[in-house]
Amino acid sequence: MKHLQIILLTLVVLSTSCDESDTAKVVDEEVGHHVVTVDQVSFDQAWAQLQTDNPYSDMFQLNGLSNDSTTLIIDVAYSGGCEEHTFELIWPEVMTMIYPPRYTVILNHDANDDTCEAYLSTTLYFDLSQYDLGLTPELMDVVDLTIINGSNGEELLKLNN
Prior knowledge:
five-stranded mixed sheet, three-stranded antiparallel sheet, about 40% strand, globular, NigD-like_C_dom_sf
């Protein structure tokens, strides 16, 4: 009887466990939220915070920047894996009246006090068509856009530059 219980317990554990690739996939799908904020006060506060030794944003790394029509695509990497992470792209309200338009925006990261040490890479998609930025698909192909890392003001990526 004891052997039967051990065999049944082993089968239950094996049937409900997942392999390493399944775990990595789940973590990758649970990146968290990413939002766009278009507000001059928020941008000014984030910019001022970048000038201090205590940035508002949790640490992360910018790995790539591209666009597909009006969707901004940003590749990032960060430590974590146990909590939901949020990325916020902060745009100033000021519209430039030059062609091509020029924008400097800040990407902040909130790790929600995640103390796990896995190093995760993910791609963030920001659909900019739903915001009053005046960025048509044609302008997205020529816009001079600089993304500044909110945790390290010296790290930046440029689109179309």
